[in-house]
Amino acid sequence: MESVIQEKGNLSIHTENIFPIIKKFLYSDHEIFLRELVSNAVDASQKVKKLASYGEFNGELGDLKVVIKLDKEAKTITISDNGIGMTADEIKKYINQIAFSGATEFVEKYKDKGEDGKGDKGIIGHFGLGFYSAYMVAENVEIITKSYKDGSEAVRWICDGSTEYELTSAEKADRGSDVILHIAADSEEFLEEDRLRGILEKYGKFLPIQIEFEDKIINNPNPIWTKNPSDLKDEDYIAFYKELYPFSEDPLFWIHLNVDYPFNLTGVLYFPKLKNDFQGQREKIQLYSRQVFITDEVKDIVPDFLQLLHGVIDSPDIPLNVSRSYLQADGNVKKINGYITRKVADKLSEIFKNDRAGFEGKFDDIGLFVKYGIISDEKFYEKAKDFCLLKNVDGKFFTFEEYKEAVKENQTDKNEMQVWLYTTDEKKQDAFIQSAKKRSYDVLLLTSVIDSHFINALEQKVEKIQVKRVDADTLDKLIEKDVTLESILSTEESDKAKKLFEEVVNSKAGNVQIEAMPVDELPVVITFPEFMRRMTDMQASSGQPSMFGNMPLMYTISVNANHPIIGRILNTESEEEQKTLAKQVYDLALLSQGLLIGSELTQFIQRTVAGL
């Protein structure tokens, strides 16, 4: 005859009520109670599977499954499994003895967590509190369980969240556990079917045991990252990407991560097609621990630039229950960080070497990512410098070394520095690009949101180069040679031209200077110094106000002393006509820089039409 268990006792915790502790430290994240309880049920299922494989359980495994049932009328949620179950002694050991030494120590250890929901997701499940997460939403919890061990008797445990519990015999035919939550009045949102389904799909989408809710399996127990890469095809990876991001374009390519020493890590990282505004691309990597979703905030685990990637990382070795400062200093996190960086760089290098044409075809989509990596991570730069590409206005690609060789002869200045010219807007800066091409100078296309920062990185990392925007000065000053052009204007004529254009130009707009330039250069060139341009671009890309505030931007107005139009203007007898012609030439220069806008542009068009 079976013995009858009937026992009452006190939980081994140094506090009168567990509610304040549980609710205080997990206040903003109540939904994870379901993640913890379902994870426990999955663990119990996997344990019985392992015991069977070790020959320690000879019974029928059956269909291992975790079932969640909602009874809105009874106000209960039940999580059931057919795993290893528990004996009465195991209940006392694992449930009654809560694994922390006291509320005071617990509070002290996590006082920096606050109640903002940022740091408390990992507390449960790592200090023996997984089961007790139930009390975030339940006023009463009962467990009905039967161990897999031969001759085991089913038992029922019940506790209302105080230190008192009751343990009695129970009726249960099969092994496993049912955890029944009697939902508290302030948590009845969790009695809604859609709310529960949403939580299950968020945290349990890839749990390794089937999860059933409302008679439907809601998870994929064998996600792609748990499989051998040699068993997978391209379409498998693309299908999984669509499973993660249903409305996204197909990824460009991917990396399958799989390492078991010196840490455990699996996953798949995808290279998406990046847009110029890459802020919206972030927080797409999902972090899992043994197939349980943890977070998509991976900034302390994945280097900043790699957060532009999409996909999944799964590691049981990432500490999820500690402060950010500890996480940043953790040895395993640093190793994981370095490993992912290396794998990404190796993959890009492999594609570049094996299929350069294909790599060039994708570079417009991944260039932003590669440049960001070069700017922010020295180890990545060491590899990326061999496959990061520069694209010129003719659509030709070069590595850094290839470009140095290509422009060495023509774009080395009198100080033995190479000058790399670039444009940020082909249409707006076309006049300057064409002037550069007349001298067989090459012009790079640098139009992404981070190129102002990338240019700085280039100058710091590539020896003996300067990078200058093609409209930052006259070409003779951008690339200074030993050759000096002579002005065809006399000193008197130069003074006259300077005075004339200073009258035409708003004195606040810039400084007028007369320069000897080639005859085929523009009659008037308006430039804005490279330093000021670059600082303005960098601050604009980071959303910061300009360091120059509301000060008017000062331009340099260079009048080409050798252009025939300037000579013709000076030889015009009427001073009024001289001013009119000078104004037209100046307005043309403004137009070529996109600086002629509003009423000034309207007046210019009217004057031009009238003169036709």
UniProtKB/TrEMBL annotation:
Pfam families the record matches: HATPase_c_3 (PF13589), HSP90 (PF00183)
CDD domains per UniProt: HATPase_Hsp90-like (cd16927)
Residue ranges annotated for the Histidine kinase/HSP90-like ATPase domain, each copy included: 29-187
SUPFAM superfamilies to which the protein is assigned, alphabetical: ATPase domain of HSP90 chaperone/DNA topoisomerase II/histidine kinase, HSP90 C-terminal domain, Ribosomal protein S5 domain 2-like
Alphabetized GO MF terms: ATP binding; ATP hydrolysis activity; ATP-dependent protein folding chaperone; unfolded protein binding
Keywords in alphabetical order: ATP-binding, Chaperone, Cytoplasm, Nucleotide-binding, Stress response
SMART domains xrefs: HATPase_c
Residue numbers binding ATP: 36, 40, 81, 86, 101-102, 324
Family to which the UniProt record says this protein belongs: Belongs to the heat shock protein 90 family.
Protein name: Chaperone protein HtpG
Source organism per UniProt: Dyadobacter frigoris
